[in-house]
Task: inverse folding
DNA sequence: CTGTGGTCCTGTATGC
DNA sequence: TGCATACAGGACCACA
């Protein structure tokens, strides 16, 4: 699923293939893709055009700055969203939801199998678009405040995995990297976040950053960035996962079988030996 | 305000 | 073989 490293890889592809070009009026083939647009597809098509000045990201949200003022096209990939740059408008692609002609004759297509993703013509509200205002900075943001974020984590009464997934606390982390992070630090997902020391919480954030940085490096090196922009893949399959999806397989650290459990309505993978609550019940 | 659980959606995998 | 069901999950939203 697209989490921060995948979205960043897509952003780089868009920066390479779309920035500097002009977006023509988009075709909305599937209204659900613009469900967040007040005024619907007609208003979206009228506004989501212009010369693309930059491709930006916060957490899992992407946006293109277009036109002359504070106009942006925001996108969230949901679970299965992709951007592809293709030679001709899609003809027989059932998952093509929205596409724009570019002034070089190519077409940029937003594809989405499971339709949880969306695109939106929006305005900037300070550093980020209105639709992204409630999203916390991600660890790759130069202004990310690690200590303050660690304190925010510890203020929550929820389990630590749920807090890592809360995009208003720290953004960019999804189910896969949350499981990987918790495996690496040796913490059970339901450990109350409020029980973490500041040092624990900082270590958690540093580890999440490290895991995502490695994933980004894998996505960036195993594929040409151009290819990423064109085909939407980002090297997920090249990645070495230690916990996610490894149920019944031996833990790479201790050999105990990884277990899969339901946690916060999501599948959660952990090593029952390495990820135990600390002594004293913490 | 905070936390939680339901919901959206469809391709793939599994079960009978 | 064919049909039914389970499953995957990010973020929004109603509700406690």
Result:
């Amino acid at each position: 699923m697209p989490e921060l490293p995948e979205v960043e890889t897509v952003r780089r592809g868009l920066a390479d293939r779309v920035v500097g070009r002009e977006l023509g009026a988009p075709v909305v083939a599937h209204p659900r893709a613009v469900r967040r647009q007040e005024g619907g597809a007609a208003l979206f098509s009228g506004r989501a055009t212009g010369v693309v000045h930059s491709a930006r990201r916060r957490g899992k949200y992407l946006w293109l700055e277009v036109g002359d003022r504070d106009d942006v096209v925001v996108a969230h990939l949901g679970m299965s969203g992709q951007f592809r740059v293709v030679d001709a408008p899609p003809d027989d692609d059932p998952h093509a939801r929205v596409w724009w002609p570019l002034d070089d004759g190519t077409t940029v297509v937003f594809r989405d199998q499971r339709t949880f993703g969306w695109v939106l013509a929006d305005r900037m509200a300070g550093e980020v678009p209105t639709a992204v205002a409630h999203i916390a900075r991600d660890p790759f943001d130069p202004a990310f405040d690690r200590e303050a974020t660690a304190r925010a984590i510890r203020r929550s009464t929820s389990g630590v995995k749920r807090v890592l997934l809360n995009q208003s606390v720290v953004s960019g982390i999804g189910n896969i990297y949350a499981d990987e992070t918790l495996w690496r630090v040796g913490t059970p997902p339901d450990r109350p976040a409020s029980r973490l020391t500041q040092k624990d919480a900082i270590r958690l954030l540093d580890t999440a950053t490290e895991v995502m940085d490695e994933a980004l490096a894998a996505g960036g090196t195993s594929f040409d960035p151009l290819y990423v922009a064109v085909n939407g893949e980002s090297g997920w399959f090249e990645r070495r996962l230690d916990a996610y999806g490894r149920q019944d397989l031996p833990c790479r650290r201790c050999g105990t079988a990884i277990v899969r459990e339901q946690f916060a309505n999501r599948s959660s993978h952990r090593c029952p030996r390495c990820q135990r609550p600390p002594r004293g019940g913490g």
About this structure: The two ends of chain A are 31 Å apart (CA to CA). Residues 1-3, 60, 76-80, 114, 116-117, 165, 167, 174-175, 265-267 of chain A lie near DNA strand C (CB under 10 Å from a C1').
